Amino acid sequence: QWLLFVILGALAGAGTYRLSLRSASPGTELKRALEAGEFVPYYQPVVDAQHGCWHGVETLMRWQHPTEGLVSPDQFIPLAERFDLIVPMTRQLMRRVREDFAGRLEQLPAGFHLSINVTAAHCQDLHLVDECREFLEAFPVGHIVLVLELTERQMITSTAVTDQLFAKLRDLGVRIAIDDFGTGHSSLAYLREFRVDFLKIDRSFISMIDSHALSRHLLDNILDLAMRLQLALVAEGVESLEQRRYLSQRGVRYLQGYLFALPMPAEALFTALQVAPDH
Ligand code: C2E
Ligand code: CA
Ligand code: CA
Ligand code: CA
Q1: 237: Cβ–Cβ under 8 A, 6 or more apart, which residues?
Q2: Which of 40, 71, 205, 269 fits 219 for a cystine, CB–CB 3.0-4.6 Å?
């Protein structure tokens, strides 16, 4: 029965792509795609609100499907999690990202942030530490800052494994961002326990800037909380100049959204970095 729900869910969210109709099992189809190396990284710049320069990029997975074209992650990440494929997919993605960036260091400012979305299940697996170490070994120390984005919708519970994992990640210099902040239920204690470095305010709050004062108040409360916790803020889904102005006036340090750039493949990213060297 749950399989039916998965299929219905995938259909409801799907545009023209219907993974579950054309394959015997979505799990089998995803596995095939993984082995064929069809999951590829796209990159969206994160902009420094003060200086306008590119502070780093977020890696966003795409499925380069042989017949369907580019498939967005909302269509396949939930299935990948269901079928226990998200960990090997992320591992492969990290290798791709490392390959994309390792030879291009001269085009990046030192301290450039590279963030990767990591699912909660992955944080129960100590191999993540080795994967991050291997990733960082491709770069001179300090040149790249690796950031793991953990969504607030999947709370990570503290266990012996996670405690050890987060301590080791910290030793490696890996930073932690809480993604989709405001949509979940993380408490102050939670944010302290996992020694979070960044809060990424969910897009749904950013879009409130254009709306009436009441919902804007909700965003202001979130900003207030983050400021008091002294955490660096990233606003996602910034689409208008008004939003940009509002957020930088309130001290949000990093901005990300279509106003600045869409997610793009590596080649386009490096071209953009060349065209605007101050980026
Ligand atoms: P997210 O981590 O919250 O990523 C931000 C999403 O907002 C991305 O959608 C991005 O393309 C989109 N976005 C950025 N700026 C704007 C804007 O100005 N306006 C609007 N309307 N949207 C904007 P995308 O790439 O489709 O990814 C959707 C979600 O899929 C991500 O949400 C993340 O939760 C998940 N995801 C993507 N890649 C991975 C991955 O490698 N691993 C895991 N576990 N999840 C991933
Ligand atoms: Ca994210
Ligand atoms: Ca996000
Ligand atoms: Ca989000």
Answers
A1: 202, 203, 204, 206, 207, 256, 257, 258
A2: 205
Protein residues whose CB sits closer than 6 Å to any atom of ligand 1: 44, 60-61, 72-74, 77, 86, 90, 93, 117, 119, 151, 179-180, 203, 236-239, 256-258, 263
**Atom 15 of ligand 1, nearest CA residue:** 257
pLDDT-above-70 percentage for the chain: 90
256 to 75, 113, 267, 271: CA distances (angstroms): 22, 13, 19, 19
Helix (H/G/I), strand (E/B), else coil: 34:
helix
Q: What is the pTM of this model?
A: 0.91
Give the pLDDT confidence of 21-42 residue by residue, as tens digits.
456 689 999 999 999 999 999 9
Closest ligand 1 atom number to CA of residue 263: 11
